Amino acid sequence: MSRILILGSEGQIGTELSIFLSKIYSKSDIITADLNKKTDTDFKFIKLNALSYFDIENVVKKYEVDDVYHLVAVLSAKGEADPLNTWKVNMTSLFNVLELARKKLIKKVFWPSSISVFGDTSPKNNTAQFSIKEPLTVYGISKLSGESWCEYYNNTYGTDVRSIRFPGIISSKTLPGGGTTDYAVSIFYSLIKKEVFKCFLNKGTKLPMIYIEDVLRSIRMLMKADKNTLRIKSSYNLSAFSFTPNELYLNLQKRFKNFKIFYESDYRQKIADSWPNKINDNYSRKDWGWKPKYSFDEMVEEMIKKVSNKLNNE
Ligand SMILES: NC(=O)c1ccc[n+]([C@@H]2O[C@H](COP(=O)([O-])OP(=O)(O)OC[C@H]3O[C@@H](n4cnc5c(N)ncnc54)[C@H](O)[C@@H]3O)[C@@H](O)[C@H]2O)c1
To answer: CATH 3.90.25.10 in the chain, residues?
Structure first.
């Protein structure tokens, strides 16, 4: 069994990935690391800044880490407030991990990219793996550059780095960290708290999304796949379902008649408008057998249940 390090473990994906992987690995083989501990899990936790190569290398050596799940990033909406810092965090932390792999101090890397690599000039519907990519945000630019570097390390050094271009992720454990699809999580909190929901995107903005359980399963599937079957060395398109704020609202209002929404779009609208409506994930399906389990309706049911439980136990 491998020993793994999750960098950025206290974020939206990390908090759920550590628990998910603890069903596969022994808990003592999972090391979590972040700038600060934010959750109450009892995994081994190291406080570190992923901008320091030596801090990560020390952890890798001390705990004899095999695989790194590198989740550190400044996300799309938050990233626009300080573009140079976003570039620095997203790129330096990735290079630090790629270099550890190049030096054979670790065996395998997982690094998530995002649909933000696409832009206004990409086809909106059924956006293909190799469609035009002219990202609008510094986050998207960093993800697209990161993808190219992953491909370069794969091709040049034989580094085993695997990546998925995630759509907007919907989950309940930890609030999202400043992305353009965050409304699709916060709407459930307003629903359960019986508040009127203010949506920062227009009602007709269709975006690709995915439920966290499918995110975790996709990461596991890709990391387990035979390297020789993986034709994409940069990052794999991945798809589950797409919806608009209005479609989500109507779905919730069917169950909670008095739920109200109003729309007040802000700077995030422009980012959302530049992203695809629906992604074509044929390469993931063919190369490593990807198929989502959760439909839009099933995600809604799960989120209502989980957010209700969470708020009732607070
Ligand atoms: N959440 C989504 O909808 C989504 C979609 C596509 C791709 N992704 C990608 O998945 C990855 C994880 O996303 P997330 O939603 O969990 O993000 P998040 O913002 O919730 O978590 C990121 C974590 O990284 C930590 N971090 C930031 N800078 C750090 C540093 N210098 N050193 C150590 N830790 C640092 C933060 O404290 C945070 O806990 C990111 O690469 C993101 O781009 C996320």
So the answer is: 169-208+240-312
Task: Give the residue carrying structure tokens 């990519």.
Answer: 133
| Alpha-carbon separation of residue 86 from 29, 79, 274 (angstroms) | 31, 5, 19
Point out the ligand 1 atom lying closest to the alpha carbon of residue 89: 31
Distance between start and end Cα atoms, the chain:
37
CA distance 57 to 100: 7
Instruction: Verify whether ligand 1 is closer than 6 Å to residue 208 (CB atom).
Output: no
- Cα–Cα distance between 19 and 83 in angstroms, integer? 32
- The C-alpha angle with vertex 104 and arms to 155 and 162, in degrees rounded to 5, equals 50
Ligand 1 atom with minimal separation from the 171 CA: 1
Q: Tell how far the Cα of 254 is from the centroid of ligand 1, in angstroms.
A: 33
Q: Look at residue 188 in the predicted model and tell me its pLDDT.
A: 98
pLDDT at position 98: 98
Two tokens, residue 93: 């932390």
Decide: 176 and 165 in contact? Cβ < 8 Å: no
Residues of the chain with pLDDT under 50: none
Amino acid 217: pLDDT: 98
DSSP for 15-45, written as a single string: HHHHHHHTTTS-GGGEEEEESS--S---SEE
Delimiting residues of CATH 3.40.50.720 domain(s) in the chain: 4-167+211-237
Our answer on whether the CB atom of 132 is closer than 6 Å to any ligand 1 atom is no
Bridge partners, residue 161, by sequence: 109
Architecture of the structural domain at 4-167+211-237: 3-Layer(aba) Sandwich (3.40)
pLDDT at residue 40, as a whole number: 86
139 given a catalytic annotation? yes
Name the superfamily (CATH) of residues 169-208+240-312.
UDP-galactose 4-epimerase, domain 1 (3.90.25.10)
Q: What is the pTM of this model?
A: 0.98
Given the residues 25, 63, 69, 139, the one annotated as active site = 139
